[in-house]
Write a structure and sequence with these properties.
The structure holds two protein chains of two kinds. By secondary structure, chain A is α/β, with parallel strands linked by helices. Chain A is built from ten helices and 21 strands. Chain B has one domain (5-255): P-loop containing nucleotide triphosphate hydrolases (Rossmann fold), CATH 3.40.50. The termini of chain B are far apart. In chain B, 43% of the residues are buried.
């Protein structure tokens, strides 16, 4: 057994090497940020199930393994056809392989209307990009509270950088793709720390697809952080599609901050990884902001996926509607924790949360926990959750209309997915995700 | 086409959770007929309707049901539906995520397949549906909504009638479809049922109220009390029930 301190020390040692080599060219503010973050990671250590936020999810399989950074230069790139197959979107894309930008697989960074879809590493090399990145990277993600976000920040080197200038409309959904080769390094499996920043400025409209996918069945760990900033009156949609490999680990954090009168739709589809944890921290930071948090997890085998969401109503007259559906087959375990905070003064908050879980086997398990913290008096907050097998009345109703029990079960299962898919605004993306969901559920 | 028995219920006993609800129902419904089954609350009306449709919670403990001469009780619920039995539910079930159009088309195609007809694609199906929608006074917006989800009580009942119109059964059983409907909705239901009336099919209206029978004229009226049919007669029986209530029948049942 490895001592707890040893587990973090390995990453501290790797950090020293990282800081000396590849990362030394970074601007001083970034180097300082990384140093602070590795120190914080060493302090926090990997979480254990004794901590309330990690009660249902043991990260021991990650902590006990020796993961290393991807070697540079990296080996062969995947074939464009593989990238095509794993992409969800239909527009421009920025592709990363094992956490590093692959320009030959990506479309040009500069798009119409001054929109930029580039690698963060490239953006940091320009003055304007560096300033924008600095303004946001050091501010939103609460890496001081999370060991994983701290580790990501310590090794912050590359990821997607999407900038949609004020009053610009992005015609096509833009896709940022994180592919993992699943190939081990010299000393163990690979970890990547993709760090993405999506800035949709005042009055702009954009949809971004964020895809995580595997090129093989190998063991790897993806530790991602994405920050989304939605400016005043802007409208943004983020589709986060996680189809990591069957033996992989995925820890991800999505932070969003919305300004006055903005709309943000975050659609989450979780299909992959042996062990997945996704933290969503959504801050409604201006009056009149609206948030849709819309998630689906379809798990089978011995998969474990934990979604922890925090919706922070910091300003009055905001609305948040959260819907997470889970379909759990075989021995899969789904965890949902939905915390809603209504700050003092956040009057006229309208918040709704539902989490419905369908258990397709007696060994499947779902844990659902709502947490409401309301410090304002004039608010409307509702929550509800269900966990159970296929409803017998629904089954009978469909059979009474001529459907076989198999067809009826298949339709009812698909309904859990279709309900979430139905809230996605972009038709092409919705269509492709629908196919993905049907393929996963089989037959529906 | 000459009349022949479509449904023959003989001495039917059924129970739920060990409690006997039907205590020997006898009923024959011929093609071309409309039957009304009336009775006080708790008399077993809905149980009879659900047993005929194949609700898994009800156990038949004695008796026989023949549908077109075949053993109905031996058929799975979906087989009954494909063979032309339709139950309009008293409490229609909501299904998340599945649009009404998808649901209806799946049902139509399951039945068509059983009858050896070609399955309908989405476009053909929508064309066929348009006319049926008009009959119940709906626009196509109801088709893109999830099945009964967020529907009002009246909308749910209309949706049952839409299914009835689309699936075109031989034996339609309407379980208190008239309850809780306003007069316009009631007229729509009655008009649709009337329109579907043919010499080769039959309708069983299970109802608590006389009201719907002023719009759909029944050939036979039955009174179900204490789990069995205690009296049958023409439409004038319904009027008598409307005036006198059900109590006199209970006394009569005890005496005979």
């Amino acid at each position: 057994m490895t001592a707890v301190a040893d587990r973090t020390e390995r990453y501290v040692a790797d950090f020293e090497a990282f800081a000396r080599n590849g990362a030394s060219g970074a601007p001083e503010w970034l180097r300082e940020l990384r140093r602070g973050a590795i120190a914080r990671f060493a302090e926090l250590g990997f979480p254990t199930t004794k901590q309330e936020e990690w009660r249902f999810t043991s990260v021991a399989p990650i902590a006990e393994q020796r993961f290393m950074l991807s070697p540079v230069p990296r080996s062969l790139l995947p074939a464009p056809s593989d990238v095509e197959r794993l992409c969800v979107g239909v527009g421009p894309r920025v592709v990363f392989v094992d956490g590093r930008h692959a320009p030959s697989l990506s479309t040009p960074a500069d798009l119409a209307g001054g929109v930029r879809a580039a690698s963060l590493a490239a953006a940091l090399r320009t003055n304007a990009g560096s300033e924008l990145a600095r303004a946001h990277l050091t501010r939103h993600a609460r890496w001081r509270e999370s060991a994983f976000a701290a580790l990501n920040t310590a090794f912050l080197a590359d990821g997607a950088f999407v900038h949609v200038p004020a009053n610009t409309t992005l015609e096509w959904p833009l896709e940022v793709v994180f592919l993992s080769t699943g190939r081990a390094g010299s000393d163990g499996p690979i970890v990547s720390h993709p760090r993405s920043l999506i800035v949709v400025e005042r009055g702009a409209r954009a949809a971004v697809v964020e895809t995580y996918a595997a090129l093989s069945d190998g063991v790897y760990w993806s530790n991602a952080v994405t920050e989304v900033v939605v400016g005043e009156g802007a409208s943004a949609e983020l589709y986060r599609v996680q189809q990591e490999g069957p033996h992989s680990f995925q820890v991800g954090t999505t932070h969003s901050r919305q300004e006055r009168d903005s709309y943000f739709g975050l659609h989450v589809v979780t299909l992959g990884a042996a062990l997945a944890r996704h933290d969503i921290n959504a801050l409604l930071d201006g009056p009149g902001a609206e948030l849709i948090l819309n998630g689906l997890y379809l798990l089978g085998g011995a998969q474990h996926a934990d979604h922890h969401t925090v919706i922070d109503h910091a300003q009055p007259h905001c609305a948040s509607h959260e819907f997470f559906n889970g379909v759990l087959a075989e021995r899969a375990h789904g965890v949902f924790n939905g915390r809603i905070i209504v700050r003092p003064g956040a009057q006229r908050t309208d918040s709704k949360q539902t989490n419905n879980n369908l258990l397709l086997s007696t060994e499947a398990r779902a844990d659902s926990q709502p947490q409401l913290e309301i410090y304002a008096d004039d608010v409307k907050c509702t929550h509800g959750s269900t966990v159970g097998p296929i409803d017998q009345m629904q089954l009978y109703y469909l059979r009474s209309r001529g459907l076989s029990p198999e067809a009826a079960r298949s339709i009812l299962t698909y309904g859990f997915g279709a309900e979430i898919l139905g809230r996605m605004r972009h038709p092409e993306v919705r269509e492709r995700l629908d196919r993905l969901v049907r393929a996963r559920l089989g037959g529906a | 086409m000459s009349k022949h028995p479509l449904l023959q219920v003989k001495n039917l006993h059924a129970s739920v959770e060990g409690r006997e609800i039907l205590t020997g129902v006898d009923l024959t419904v011929n093609t071309g007929e409309v039957h009304a089954i009336m009775g006080p609350n708790g008399s077993g009306k809905s149980t009879l309707a659900q047993v005929l449709a194949g609700h898994p919670a009800y156990a038949v403990t004695a008796g026989q049901v023949l549908y077109e001469g075949n053993d109905l009780l031996a058929m799975a619920p979906e087989v009954r539906a494909r063979e032309g039995v339709f139950l309009a539910f008293q409490y229609p079930v909501a299904i998340r995520g599945i649009t009404n159009a998808y649901f209806l088309r799946s049902a139509v195609n399951a039945i068509r397949k059983h009858r050896g007809a070609e399955e309908l694609g989405p476009v053909e199906f929508m064309d066929a549906l348009e006319e049926k929608l008009k009959v119940i006074g709906w626009d196509s917006s109801y088709l893109t909504r999830p099945v009964n989800e967020g529907f009002s009580g009246g909308e749910k009942k209309r949706n049952e009638i839409l299914q009835l119109a689309v699936l075109d059964p031989k034996l339609a059983i309407l379980d208190e479809t008239d309850s809780g409907l306003d007069i316009d909705a009631l007229k729509t239901v009655a008009k649709t049922v009337d329109k579907l009336r043919r010499p080769d099919n039959a309708t069983v209206l299970v109802t608590h109220y006389y009201r719907i029978l002023t719009h759909i004229e029944p050939d036979v009226v039955h009174v179900l009390a204490g789990g069995k049919i205690v009296k049958s007669g023409g439409k004038e029986l319904a009027l008598e029930l409307e005036e006198k209530g059900y109590d006199w029948l209970r006394e009569e049942a005890v005496v005979t």
